[in-house]
Amino acid sequence: MARERAVSIARVSSKRQEDEGYSLPAQKRLLTSYARERNLHVLETFEIAETASKTQQRRIFQHAMKFIEDHDIKHLIVEKVDRHVRNLHDAVETHDWLMADAQRNVHFIKDSLVMHQNSRSQEWLNWGIRVVMAKNYIDNLREEAMKGWAEKLAQGWLPAVPPPGYKTITRDGKRIHVPDEATWRVVKEMFELYLTPSHTIATITKEFSKRGIRTSKGRPHAKSRVQLILTNPFYIGINRHNGKEYPGKQETFISKELFRRVQDKLHGKRPNVYKKHNPLFKNLLSCNVCGGVVTWQLQKGRYYGSCQRLNNKCKGRKTIREDQLEARIEAMLAQLVCPSQRLTAWVSQELQDKKQTTAQAREDSIQALDAQMSRLMRMDGELYDDKLAGDISRDVYQSKHDQFMEQYKELEDERDRLANANQNDLEQRLALFRLSQDAAKLYRTRSIAQKRIIITKLFSSITYGNESVSVTYSKFAKVIANKSLKTKEILGR
User: Fold this and answer.
1) Are 249 and 184 in contact (CB under 8 A)?
2) For strand 174-179 and strand 238-241, is the pairing parallel, antiparallel, or unpaired?
3) What is the rounded distance in angstroms from the CA atom of residue 138 to the CA atom of residue 143?
4) CA angle at 483 for the pair 479 and 485, rounded to the nearest 5°
5) Has residue 434 got a pLDDT over 70?
6) Closest Cα to residue 234, out of 247, 243, 223, 221?
7) Long-range contacts of 253-260 (CB under 8 A, 24+ apart)
8) How many CB atoms lie within 10 A of CB 249?
């Protein structure tokens, strides 16, 4: 008698299960033995290991079901219900597959259950209960993990790997975070350097790379990493978790005043200093001969600018009136305006479409990170249950827990970076393009502060010397100006 073909799925949900007799090879032997007893030939076995992400597990499951459909397989063999379905999606897909053909069967070996289209109502009830129990088990693990983390936060401790500058130790039976003698000074130097006029996040990143300063994993510090360090309130005794802040008990080495000043600079705030005069081009105009900053003086209601470098000995030292410089700026702004409304609308729509596409990609990345973080929480919950049951020692639990938390922290940092990031470069380009088309009109009626914003957004440099003014567009504005010029040439304007 010819054997009917079958497919089997072997799944191990935790590392402990792999190590303690519930490994994939052990499951495969069970599945093969069962098939042989029932005269079934296992054509293919799909393996889902603990190391697979939630997305990967789902992909393997769907691949298995497609393989079954493509090869007209009538028998699916798994160890038990909770080895097969991890969510209601899997359960619904399996149910629909069974109901589409009366000859199809799903064998749950350890549940002593074989499901098919004509299964008794009691068997369907048994199946449904086990599906709900499998989902409820996972949900409970997540809840318990959240409760454990909430308790630690309430006690003043962050239930995760601490940021750079700290290490985790055991004190009085508790895991706490303390300053790391090897790294805390490096972190403090980051804060102090950022407040100096010559340093930005980019320059700090380069400086630390040159000095060979690395992360705990031996990698160079990235700009995003430096940004996260400078904005993390953990350094002033505040634990941030899932968007909420909790008072912490950790020892700090960054003063609240230093942290506040860094945040002010990051957000573009400046100290409130009394200013007698407010020239439009203050710190925006430089000498094209010596590179010095052009300073401004108020005389008879008008501002006059000149280079004051090298004790007034600069050979390019000539005076320019503010309104004369403004006329040059207005002329350059007018060159940005595209003469074709149709082209303007097309460029704007193209940038808008690209922005939406990029935003969706970012959202997809955030969802993928959420899935990975949920998986880590589930795994940590399973680990906690193993400790409570006495299946693993406290030391083993703590070691694995710390690994999970370190991975979770890295994922959380990346998620925060994506969630808190600006809409991206495409959004900025769209805003710049729209500004460029209206800048010439806006400039004439706007305040000094608003004019300065327009200038800094659309020009990279303005220089003056020997009675000549030189204006350079910013990178993207230069592209717009060139396109506008070519369009005018084509249109004969």
Assistant:
1) no
2) unpaired
3) 9
4) 115
5) yes
6) 247
7) 253/165, 253/179, 253/184, 253/187, 253/188, 254/187, 254/188, 254/191, 258/191, 258/192, 258/195, 259/191, 259/233, 259/235
8) 12
User: Which two structure tokens, joined as six digits, stand for 414?
Assistant: 């990346």
Give tens-digit pLDDT for 209-248: 877 777 766 778 788 888 889 999 999 988 887 778 888 8
Q: Which residues of 231-247 are buried (b: 16+ CB within 10 A; e: fewer)?
A: bbebbbbbbbeeeeebe
Please answer whether residues 98 and 67 qualify as being in contact, where contact means their C-beta atoms are separated by less than 8 angstroms.
Answer: no
In terms of Cα–Cα distance, which of 1, 2, 7, 24 is closest to 105? 7
Of 182, 180, 189, whose CA–CA distance to 162 is shortest?
180
H/E element holding 432? helix 425-445
- The verdict on pTM exceeding 0.70 is no
Confidence at 487, pLDDT banded by 50, 70, 90: low
Per the structure block, which two tokens stand in for 145?
């993990």
- pLDDT grade, residue 358 (50/70/90)? low
Specify which residues 115 forms β-bridges with.
106
**CATH topology (fold) of 166-266:** Hect, E3 ligase catalytic domain fold (3.90.1750)
Beta bridge partners of 305: 296, 320
| DSSP secondary structure string for all residues of 43-88 | EEEEEE-TTS-HHHHHHHHHHHHHHHHHTT--EEEES-HHHH-SSH
Q: Which residue has the tokens 């370190």?
A: 406
In the chain, residues under CATH classification 3.40.50.1390 are 4-148
* Residue 168 main-chain phi, psi, to 5 deg: -105, 130
Find where tokens 């790379």 sit.
Answer: 209
Q: For 291-328, write each residue's pLDDT tens digit.
A: 788 888 888 888 988 886 655 557 666 788 998 898 88
Domain 4-148: homologous superfamily in CATH: Resolvase, N-terminal catalytic domain (3.40.50.1390)
Beta sheet of 4-11, edge-to-edge order? 40-48, 4-11, 75-78, 105-108, 113-116
Task: Give the length of the chain.
Answer: 493
Region(s) of the chain under CATH 3.90.1750.20: 166-266
